[in-house]
Amino acid sequence: MRRIKLKDIAEYTHMSMTAVSLVLNNKPCKISESSRQKILQAAKELNYSPNRLAVGLATHRTHTIGLIVGDISNVFFSILAKGVDCACQAADYNVMLCNSWNTHEGDMHMIDTLADSGVEGIIYCMSDDTTQEDALESKRKLQQYGIPFVEVDSDYTQNHILFDHEQGGYLATRHLIEHGHTKIACLMGPVQMQGTNGRVAGYRRAHKEAGLPVDDTLMTVGDFSMESGAAAVKNLWGREFTAIFAGNDMMAIGALKELRTEHIRVPQDISIVGYDDIPVSEMLEVPLTTVRQPMAEMGATAAKNLIGILREPKKTMEKKIFSPKLIVRKSVRTLVG
């Protein structure tokens, strides 16, 4: 069924398109009340709804926000996107979701795509391979387009929503140390990511606080995917460790899968702590102890801050740093002796 246009209502009422447009857009006009009601009734009977994109292009207000994420299959981004969408719907904004495939080149392409689509602002989760130089290039492009933006989970620019990853890494590692573990493997994310560096800093801080040396041979790099978690554990075979701190829950799940393949039990043989607290974590065969990130709240806060900027351009954005919470379940064993 085709979309009803102003032309259809004009023909239906035998009135001009100008008159129909003025009435339906609630603009001042010298049209009689009876004619106005006739137009409104026709719009109702024909199930007319305005084309928001067309109206937006004419008024420069599309009420649409762009959201760029690295990989929507990563549950972190799925939940964050839900938070963004809920906040936008409450404020009568639409969301246009773009997946950059975790490359800076993809980020730049999506910025162009969103600008061409007339979005009013962008919520930007930079790709995993972003460098300082890449971030500045993205910022310049957004400024050239004149598009306000909020950065999530990195702080290369002034407008950002952050998570205290150092404290998160510290809480996870300290929990393992408190349960008697001194040989703790660390499954890191991409090394250039600020979030990875924060987690690792917390991992090191917990060791230092406990007077324990960090064994760099127990640190291995992944890409936050389940497959990379399994591969990271394979890389650790032959080394001595009793516990694993995984950079996110997806890597932890991959590690669990690999451990099960090798008939290694969790937590009886190896303890493991994840990161994020995605919904499936508590439904695993061994419910996963993990560090909770309030992903939906982070997304909602980013959306509210951006909408605030759009409504009051001179408004200073409130920077927000979210704190981690350790969620204790069943994947950590206390070592005795």
Sum up the structure in keywords.
alpha/beta; 12 strands; 337 residues; 434 Repressor (Amino-terminal Domain); 3 domains; Rossmann fold
Description of the molecule:
- This protein is an alpha/beta fold and 337 residues long.
- It folds into 3 domains: 45 residues, lambda repressor-like DNA-binding domains (434 Repressor (Amino-terminal Domain)); 130 residues, Response regulator (Rossmann fold, 3-Layer(aba) Sandwich), CATH 3.40.50; 129 residues, Rossmann fold, CATH 3.40.50.2300.
- 45% of the residues lie in helices and 14% in strands.
- It has a 6-stranded parallel sheet, with helices on both faces. A 4-stranded parallel sheet has the order 7-6-8-9, sandwiched between helices.
- Strand 3, helix 7 and strand 4 form a beta-alpha-beta unit.
- The protein starts with 5 loop residues before the first helix and ends in a 10-residue tail after the last strand.
- The model has no long low-confidence stretch (mean pLDDT 91).
How would the blueprint of this fold be written?
Layout: H1 6-13, H2 17-24, H3 33-45, H4 52-59, E1 64-69, H5 75-90, E2 94-99, H6 104-116, E3 121-124, H7 132-145, E4 149-152, E5 160-163, H8 165-178, E6 184-188, H9 194-209, E7 219-221, H10 226-236, E8 243-246, H11 249-261, E9 271-273, E10 290-292, H12 295-311, E11 320-322, E12 325-327
Helix pairs in contact: 1-2, 1-3, 5-12, 6-7, 8-9, 10-11
Which structural class best describes the helix and strand composition?
Answer: alpha/beta
Low-confidence stretches: none
The number of domains: 3
Major beta-sheet overview: 6 strands, parallel
Q: Any idea what the radius of gyration is?
A: 26 Å
Shape annotation:
elongated
Please tally the helical runs, counting DSSP H or I stretches of 4 or more residues: 12
Mean of residue pLDDT values: 91
Name given to the CATH architecture of the largest domain:
3-Layer(aba) Sandwich
CATH superfamily of the largest domain: Response regulator
* Pattern of helices and strands: HHHHEHEHEHEEHEHEHEHEEHEE
- Residues in helices, as a percent range: 40-55%
What's the end-to-end separation, in Å? Answer: 73 Å
Please indicate the percent range of residues in DSSP E strands (runs of 2 or more). 5-15%
- CATH class term of the largest domain: Alpha Beta
Q: Which sequence of strands runs across the widest sheet?
A: 2-1-3-4-5-11
CATH topology of the largest domain: Rossmann fold
Q: How many β-strands, per DSSP?
A: 12
